[in-house]
């Protein structure tokens, strides 16, 4: 599934190509995505100008001159194709045609993504956002807000950080990488996080996300950038997907058995038990 850096990359690509363009045609080939696309979706958005873009967690918001915002979630396999050819692509469910003749297509083989509308002035009350946690790259995410969220929570820190009510947009890859950078064991109860470690963790989360965004995200099975290119951050992964490989932080350490993996809350966690002891 595309995580925050991949979604941010897709949004920026769409912004470059589509901002200030008018939607002259909206083609919906299937309404039955994860949530059903509203029946009047085409009528509401066609004729509107795309004014701005915004990301909330793993969702892309497209703000229109009609006072509505399109909400897009890529799901497991969704992707956006800019300059889509006239011939419909396989699994092409929604197409926006703009006043400069460009076609922007939403393609989703597994149909776990979604597209919806909400009034722009009421975005914060939309069902997916009402209880969502702070943005990890925003000013409201700090060591203190993280410590406050951790109070009384014995959930292991790795699945705790994946809870979108705690912090928005974090996914499995980048939480594994951030915990490794912060030298924090993924099994540590969240309530055991100490102030100094919280500061290190917040900085690690931000740095790994910003580096991944700068690299265009990671190239995953179903992810490509909107113009068709690939991300490169997977080449910077230190533990994710590295089971059995030497830990980059403990080279030559006799006690280090290398990168290990385990399952937490149904997700695979990659970590180094020797390096990740603190909290």
UniProtKB/TrEMBL annotation:
Domain Formamidopyrimidine-DNA glycosylase catalytic residues, every copy: 2-113
Q: What is this protein called?
A: Formamidopyrimidine-DNA glycosylase
Say yes or no: keyword Zinc-finger present: yes
Q: Where does DNA bind?
A: 91, 110, 153
Assembly notes:
Monomer.
Report the sequence similarity comment from the record. Belongs to the FPG family.
Q: Give the note describing cofactor binding and stoichiometry.
A: Binds 1 zinc ion per subunit.
The record's annotation in Gene3D superfamilies points to:
1.10.8.50, MutM-like, N-terminal
Q: Tell me the GO molecular function terms.
A: class I DNA-(apurinic or apyrimidinic site) endonuclease activity; oxidized purine nucleobase lesion DNA N-glycosylase activity
Required co-factor? Zn(2+)
Q: Which reaction does it catalyse?
A: Hydrolysis of DNA containing ring-opened 7-methylguanine residues, releasing 2,6-diamino-4-hydroxy-5-(N-methyl)formamidopyrimidine; 2'-deoxyribonucleotide-(2'-deoxyribose 5'-phosphate)-2'-deoxyribonucleotide-DNA = a 3'-end 2'-deoxyribonucleotide-(2,3-dehydro-2,3-deoxyribose 5'-phosphate)-DNA + a 5'-end 5'-phospho-2'-deoxyribonucleoside-DNA + H(+)
- Tell me the leader sequence span: none
Q: Which organism is it from?
A: Acetobacter lambici
Ordered alphabetically, the record's keywords are:
DNA damage, DNA repair, DNA-binding, Glycosidase, Hydrolase, Lyase, Metal-binding, Multifunctional enzyme, Zinc, Zinc-finger
UniProt domain FPG-type: residue ranges: 238-277
What the entry lists under InterPro entries is as follows:
FPG_cat, FPG_Glyclase, FPG_N, H2TH_FPG, Ribosomal_uS13-like_H2TH, Znf_DNA_glyclase/AP_lyase
């Amino acid at each position: 599934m595309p995580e925050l850096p991949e979604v941010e990359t897709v949004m920026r690509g769409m912004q470059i190509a589509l901002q200030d363009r008018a939607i002259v045609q909206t083609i919906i080939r299937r309404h039955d995505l994860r949530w059903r696309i509203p029946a009047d979706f085409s009528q509401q958005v066609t004729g509107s100008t795309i004014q701005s873009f915004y990301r909330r967690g793993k969702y892309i918001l497209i703000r229109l001159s009609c006072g509505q915002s399109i909400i897009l979630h890529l799901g497991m396999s969704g992707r956006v194709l800019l300059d889509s050819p006239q011939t419909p692509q396989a699994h092409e469910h929604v197409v926006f045609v703009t006043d400069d003749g460009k076609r922007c297509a939403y393609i989703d083989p597994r149909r776990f993504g979604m597209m919806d509308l909400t009034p722009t002035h009421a975005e914060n009350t939309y069902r997916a956002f009402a209880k969502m946690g702070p943005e990890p790259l925003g000013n409201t995410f700090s060591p203190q807000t993280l410590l406050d969220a951790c109070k009384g929570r014995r959930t292991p820190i790795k699945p705790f950080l994946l809870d979108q009510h705690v912090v928005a947009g974090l996914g499995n890859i980048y939480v594994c990488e951030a915990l490794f950078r912060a030298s924090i064991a993924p099994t540590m109860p969240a309530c055991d996080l100490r102030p100094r470690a919280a500061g290190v963790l917040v900085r690690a989360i931000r740095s790994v996300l910003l580096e991944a965004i700068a690299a265009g995200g990671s190239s995953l099975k179903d992810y490509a950038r909107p113009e068709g290119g690939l991300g490169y951050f997977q080449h910077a992964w230190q533990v994710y997907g590295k089971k059995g490989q030497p830990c980059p932080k403990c080279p030559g350490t006799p006690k280090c058995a290398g990168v290990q993996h385990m399952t937490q809350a149904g997700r695979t966690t990659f970590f180094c038990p020797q390096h990740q002891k603190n909290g």
